[in-house]
């Protein structure tokens, strides 16, 4: 029976592992100096060697005569660990064994001594798929397993693993394998299998694998099955659903010359011919990126405006995740390109159509955007722009002053609250905050309720409340309408207190300072709150400045913040 290449060439010793030198060297040293941990966590992208290294480590740690942390491959333990009858190296797929019952069964077996080897090694693959109950059942066993048991947990998504599990493991992060390392390994396989393939195809395979060696070898195996003769670049494009560079360049020209009908026809053609439109989009991004890099590094001439290329690349990158998740990828790609072209087709610059005959006597057409005409700037225009810049600078300076006063007010109010803080008041306001859940869907004030509920009440006195937030950006955002938030809170809860908004980090600093002073028999001194005026009350900005701000908001939308 035919054996897949990725299985046939899976490493069996540390020295054959590609691209994970840090992890390999650390594990070899652990075996060499007998610093064996009871639990390990291997995390990283798919196809980077997590399960492979787990198996190699399981065999090496059981070797009777390891050499510099590497299994000898000859002793009784090594021979047994490689055999199909080995019962002491247990691999569990957590994706299909993720319940509490399966973990309880595992717990009941861990106390049984190994049949042949020194250690019984449990390799739990895709461990993030375990349920919360299963993790809880596993927790105590991982914390204090029998001396003859080692756990190796492998995952592509460590964020889903409880911190209590992670803290009990020695964590190793696997990185994506570089294209050079992947190509080198593919070359070795190609030579061993006597596969005829163009060298540039190996580059493309390495690029398409996105750092996963298993995916790269799998793609090579698929190409081998597709082609009976030498594997060419066109074969790669065909099997991977991509387009060749000539067609890709043509698509780029059509997009930036705003030829809507031709762009849609091209997308339709790709779809009918079974091309992977997500791969085509990625190819287009790489093409534009390479053109920009070549322009920046080698001063090459761009066919289109640099700023336009950068903006398009950013937009495409932002929408790539949405395109991948779309039910109808073709429709989503068409809508994206239609929207972009419609937004830019009225550009003043014109497109020049150039035709030339290449070396193969084939007529090629390209679309080159002409340089934008330079406009003569009048003296009045320059004076107006300078005046606007000056006004905007004034606004920024005054806004910075107000921000500084706001932070000073919040700090003083927080300290004053801590001086008179009462636990009953804290419990009362905590309950009051919960009342705001009834207003989260209010069309007018729902956002105020949500912003307040995002925080945590830390202290309350008869006069004030301290609410903390994890991120400084959130506290800064609330400064724009903190009076409105305070009024909303008091109106909906029946309270009449003033609120101080601070970061959680700042709260922890204040609490530590308060405790240290208390140990010394001291305390915070009560301070009068500074008067905080709005920007308009502090210093009226003339009408031209207000016009400037209005224009800024009109350009960028109501999300703009003038700082």
Measured distance between first and last alpha carbons: 69 Å
Q: Structural class given helices, strands, pairing?
A: alpha/beta
> Considering DSSP H and I runs of 4 or more, what fraction of the residues is helical?
40-55%
Quote the average pLDDT.
81
Radius of gyration: 32 Å
- Report the top-level CATH class of the largest domain: Alpha Beta
Q: The biggest beta sheet, please?
A: 5 strands, parallel
For the secondary structure, the number of strands is 10
Strand order of the largest sheet: 2-3-4-1-5
For CATH, the homologous superfamily of the largest domain is named as DnaA, N-terminal domain
CATH topology of the largest domain: GMP Synthetase, Chain A, domain 3
Shape: flat
CATH architecture of the largest domain: 2-Layer Sandwich
Strand fraction = 5-15%
Q: How many helices?
A: 24
Number of domains: 4
Low-confidence stretches: 362-367, 370-375, 534-545, 552-563
Overview of the structural elements:
This protein is α/β, with parallel strands linked by helices and 563 residues long. The protein has four domains: 169 residues, P-loop containing nucleotide triphosphate hydrolases (Rossmann fold); 62 residues, Helicase, Ruva Protein, domain 3, CATH 1.10.8.60; 100 residues, no CATH class; 175 residues, GMP Synthetase, Chain A, domain 3. The chain is 55% helix and 10% strand. It contains 24 helices and ten strands. The chain has a five-stranded parallel beta sheet, with helices on one face. A three-stranded mixed beta sheet has the order 8-9-10. Helix 3 runs antiparallel to helix 4, helix 8 crosses helix 9 and helix 10 packs across helix 11. The C terminus is likely disordered.
